[in-house]
Give the backbone structure.
Amino acid sequence: MAPAGISGDDLHRVRCHLGALLDERGLTLSELAERVGVSVVNLSILKNDRARAVRFSTLTALCDALECQPGDVFAVEDASPGVAPAE
Amino acid sequence: MTNEVTPPRPTQSRRWSGWDQGLLEGLLVLVAIGAVVVAVLFGLDTATADHLEQPVDLRENVATIDPATVGGYRLKVDSATLLIEDPDAGQRIAAMIPMVVTTLVVGIASTLLWMIARSIRKGDPFHRSNARRLMWAAVVVLVGGMGASVADVFVSVSFADAAEGLPIDHAGTLSLLPLPIGVVLAALSEIFRRGAVLRDDVEGLV
């Protein structure tokens, strides 16, 4: 059960660093979408932290295209003060 | 040379095409409009006719009168049409009720199904609203359909009983067809409700 004041979508604190990775490699979202085989719309959802789940196949394709590891793409943000992390 | 394992291709089945969609929506619109037209025409005819017609069964002693026989074939006369001359307003309304209720049921149910068919065209059929529409279609068919069937028997019995002295029995039979149709629609409603839950689960899945 979610702590009071926190919605289901806020239960996770996974943040996507796709934007930063694209900037480092000088790639656009469209170019990455073409390499990965995922639509620009879905990549945009991912980049803006609006995705609720990611397929392993998508994650694999992203890491191959960006030559990185999943930990470079996603990170778990520290819990904000007053909210206990889920056990 | 890589050792990649290619997943087996799924069996190719015929996909739902634009023609199929058009046919489905067109049929449902035709049925809905047809139901309204039939109700209006039947109502007008019943309201203005100089006599009403009601199918009845002939009793045994009447049915055996003048049997026609040819070789091994015998004609059995066991049904007839009761003519109600110069019907009053109550009789006209009674005669209209079963047909009007039936056409209302058909019209409402097909309209609800048409709304669901439109969502198939939009590519997003598994929505809670469609589950609700199917549930309402089930209720309309079950309640309205069985109500029309009961009314039909009631009207048939009333007219036959009113024609005292004639050797007839009512020909009304209670149709149970709305029951399986309503149950199937209710089951579809549950399927779409669960589909909506699954849709919510994969929303936002990249």
Remarks:
- The longest strand of chain A covers residues 14-16.
- Chain A is about 45% helix and 5% strand.
- The first helix of chain A runs from residue 18 to 25.
- The beta strands of chain A are 14-16, 74-76.
